[in-house]
From TrEMBL:
Co-factor remark: Binds 1 FAD per dimer.
Function: The electron transfer flavoprotein serves as a specific electron acceptor for several dehydrogenases, including five acyl-CoA dehydrogenases, glutaryl-CoA and sarcosine dehydrogenase. It transfers the electrons to the main mitochondrial respiratory chain via ETF-ubiquinone oxidoreductase (ETF dehydrogenase).
Organism: Pinctada imbricata
Taxonomic classification: Eukaryota, Metazoa, Spiralia, Lophotrochozoa, Mollusca
The protein's name in its UniProt record: Electron transfer flavoprotein subunit alpha
Alphabetically ordered keywords of this record: Electron transport, FAD, Flavoprotein, Mitochondrion, Transport
Amino acid sequence: MIERYKLKNVTIRIKKVTKRSEQLSLLMHRFDNHICLLRRFNGTLVVAEHTNEKLVPITLNTITAASKLGEVTCLVAGSQCAKVAEEISKVQGVKKILLADNEVYKGFLPESLTPLLVAAQNQFKFTHILAGATAMGKSLIPRVAAKLDVSPVSDIIGINDTDTFVRTIYAGNAIQTVKSKDSVKLITVRGTAFEAAQVEGGSGATEQAPTVDVKNELSEFVSQELTKSDRPELTSARTVVSGGRGMKNGDNFKLLYDLADKMNAAVGASRAAVDAGFVPNDMQVGQTGKIVAPDLYIAVGISGAIQHLAGMKDSKVIVAINKDPEAPIFQVADYGLVADLFKAVPEMTDAMNK
Ligand SMILES: Cc1cc2nc3c(=O)[nH]c(=O)nc-3n(C[C@H](O)[C@H](O)[C@H](O)COP(=O)(O)OP(=O)(O)OC[C@H]3O[C@@H](n4cnc5c(N)ncnc54)[C@H](O)[C@@H]3O)c2cc1C
């Protein structure tokens, strides 16, 4: 009897536990739903890249990517950057702007910006934090991810759902789909894979970002020299003319500048041309340079190594000028001209004059 009673007791207890656990799981389910709603409400943070005066175009592509994941908040951090907050408040899809206008963010050093992002994350509990896959995004996002103890997902070219992202590996030769189980996803976005958000029509509200006591003893902003050019910016230009080792020296790049000016094009270069000192490295296109996907890409004296193709093969129309008919660039080119570039390029520029 006792045993039975005990057994009964136990059974009852188990039932009770079961009942409680059912109630608990029901509660958890409701709680989960609330968390989901809260998560959705919390949305996505985009780290705006800018010059303190104006937005860098990749921020607009990053906003488009972020819009697929939830409500978009943008962080504008810099010094004397209120103008940028105003600009971004008009961008379609941006609901809120967090403004951190402070001398400590001068030079956009990742060591100074990281505590700000961590503080913003602790306060607002974003589900995703995104930045463009630029030098800035690439140095900031992994650092913030490490501080939040999550894995960054870099250089995404697609979004399948809120956890699953598409990115390229092996210099663009394979496409990987990666699912992140982290509570917050830290992501860099390949700008050319997403349309730019409309710069008009939005009405985001600006509020102060969390105040952070930034003590950066690791790095110091000294100065910067910005290249001034009337030509369009390389990563957002609709036409790009790039030169490679075949240009022979830096002076000969004038041929490309002349052609580019006729076409309102940006000028890029292969790594070989950069390494040889023909042009500065901010002109490098490729795996370890900039990724471009213009309407028209003209490769001049470039062989077409996979590391170069990784940066330009998504261009809509590719034209190659090379004296070697076997050059691999012709395999990806829509139009190929087997010719001496020193003859062909001036002829093209002349033709543009007519
Ligand atoms: C880890 C890693 C990362 C890299 N990242 C990049 C990167 O981001 N971007 C990049 O570009 N490279 C990168 N590279 C280097 C890459 O492998 C190639 O070495 C480089 O792209 C070659 O540049 P090129 O085509 O200008 O030079 P070359 O391969 O030397 O080609 C020069 C071409 O010019 C042609 N030519 C010469 N004279 C004339 C003429 N008078 N008229 C017409 N054609 C002429 C030749 O036929 C030749 O095809 C990377 C390499 C590694 C290992």
